[in-house]
Amino acid sequence: MLSVNVRKRLRDVVVTVDVALDDGVTALVGPSGAGKSTLLRLIAGLTHPDSGTIRLGEVLLDDAEHHYHLPPGRRGIGLVFQEYALFPHLSVAENVAYGLRARGLPGRERRTRVTEMLERLGIAALAGERPERLSGGQRQRVALARALVLQPSALLLDEPLAALDVQTRAGVRHELRLLLSDLAIPTILVTHDYTDALAFRRRILIMDAGHIVQDGSHDTLLTHPGSRFVAEFTGVNYYEGTLEAHDPDRTGRVRLAGGVDVYAAADDVPPGPVGLALRPWEVTVSPQPPAGSARNVLPGRVREVLPMGGRVRLILDVGPRHSLPLVAEITPRAQDSLGCREGQTLYASFKATALALIPL
Q1: Percent of residues, the chain, with pLDDT higher than 70
Q2: How many Å apart are CA 254 and CA 251, to the nearest integer?
Q3: Strand, coil or helix: what is 121?
């Protein structure tokens, strides 16, 4: 287990984190400047905390109060940088062997471990190549091999997909998930793109302004975002309003800003201030008021039409004054049938059970 309870003041933000990480991959996601890379540097030993402690299993890495700091090279932690930091004048095999050579391992043992690692990551055929001849995905595997060949007790990856172009990013993301899935050590993958974090949906930490603002699985973050920031970051509609007394069927009316009222399943949620989360794909869009069973039907004006691969994201301004933004996701076929365009009036509908209420 990796336990981090530290505070570090930077020029623009104070990083304050208290978290424990078990074996397996944890995605650490947040906007630029949130403190993600600083947290990795603290764990790796490249930066000293102002206060607090860091432990890896039974090993104490930092204790600021007692001025104890274990040097990076003695921490047993692998670090993969954003740009991979491969030595351009060395071959793939020589890059992977670099750390073993620095540790003074005999040549035969060094070659054996390098060969086994290259085979494990499927790049044995590239052993003699130089980094400039490799694709982005291949360079990533080499950087990962160089970290793993040292048999680390924890692994840190700082924006490992950021250097890739859009065309190769999805494929390399999938490969990386497969490569990391078998690691029985605490592994932190940092990214500013929530799409990358989705590949490692078991545990996601969302960081903002130096703090971890929510910690949970992807499903938990979608259904129960803890704040507007988390909801918007994960692509979920989030509003705050007032839940009125429940109807006999346990459906309650929630009064939102801009004169908008919606109805939500309100079991076990008392009347009063609430947050309300709605996933975009739970919203149905039609040119006329629907005749179905949806409890909520809101006319809206299309503000933006955003193609996103196999989905199309619509941003509607709903409410009497068109002041409340609502995001819906539809298929390209549905977009074609609707003839979606900016300024068009459409009706967004969703069931009361599609709304998640969060007492505030």
Answers
A1: 97
A2: 10
A3: coil
